[in-house]
Amino acid sequence: QVSFQVSGGKPIAVLRVKVEPQPHVVDQTFRFYHPELTFLKKTIRLPPWHTLPGAPVGMPGGEPEMFVRCSDPDIICETKNMGPGEPQDIFLKVAGGPSPQIKKFFVAIYMDAWLAAPVQIWQFYLHSLQRLDVSCMAGQLTRLSLLLRGTPALRRVRVFTSHPQELEVDPDGAFLLPANGIQDLYIGVRPRQAGNRFIYLNLVDVESHQLVSSWLLCLSCRQPLISKAFEISLPAGGGRGCNKRITYTNPYPSPRLYFLCTNRPDLLQFKEDSFEVAGGEVYTIGLRFAPSQSVGEEEILIHINDHEDKNEETFCVKVLY
């Protein structure tokens, strides 16, 4: 209720204002995954002011000053004008909660000092995950376990991952998580490329579609030692693949079982994914290369692993298309 009064305090008009908040028109959405109970510090560059919809045209004095405000008062959100011609950045500092909490907030960008109407509204999601550091080798299976803690109620859950080709879980399908109980989740990581990477792992209630737990796997993956290198030439643009053979000698005096895998299953397939060879004997590995439509070169790794999926040897095949 709004009252208009004269100097003596007598009201001359009374308005009843009904306010109906409308949802934001979101121009851009950002989603960040971060270890739980830590601060996310992020700098985001603002686009040039003249590219924003609704930006004033022909402003006197050159570039306008830009202002930002956050919907959450507990989040540090600020920007500074770096001078004419310089890019302007937004700095965010957000306190993450416990896993699997998701913090949602908005950032409004203004080009007027009165903050009357935003020219852009950005939506942010911050996913808090349990961090797990994993040191591994490309092409080799690294096994570890995660501890699952049950909620007050019995749940039927399933695990989903961002990289199903490089991460296997046991149990694979849906399973029961006992109420207030503890259960192990066994996972196997087999990265295809060396380097540092992130893999996301979510435990989801399949009946209510509720997120129960989340993990951030921080992989530090090293390249295996290359014991042999080959170079072959294949025709490009052909519709048929090519078959090749390479040999492997069992260095042990007793029979051994070996498993084969590659970092480029889209380009190379094996005649047999596993083979057994007697002590000191030579085995011929059949390779099937997929056709390539473009000219170039690719380095394909062939990992020869033992019965525990530990890397015995790695061959490198340089293919010239």
UniProtKB/TrEMBL annotation:
One of its GO terms (biological process) is negative regulation of canonical Wnt signaling pathway. GO terms for cellular component: ciliary basal body; ciliary base; ciliary transition zone; non-motile cilium. This is Nephrocystin-4. Residues 30-127, 139-222, 227-321 form the NPHP4 Ig-like domain. The lineage of its organism: Eukaryota, Metazoa, Chordata, Craniata, Vertebrata. InterPro entries: Ig_NPHP4_2nd, Ig_NPHP4_3rd, Ig_NPHP4_4th, NPHP4. Pfam families: Ig_NPH4_3rd, Ig_NPHP4_2nd, Ig_NPHP4_4th. It comes from the Eukaryota.
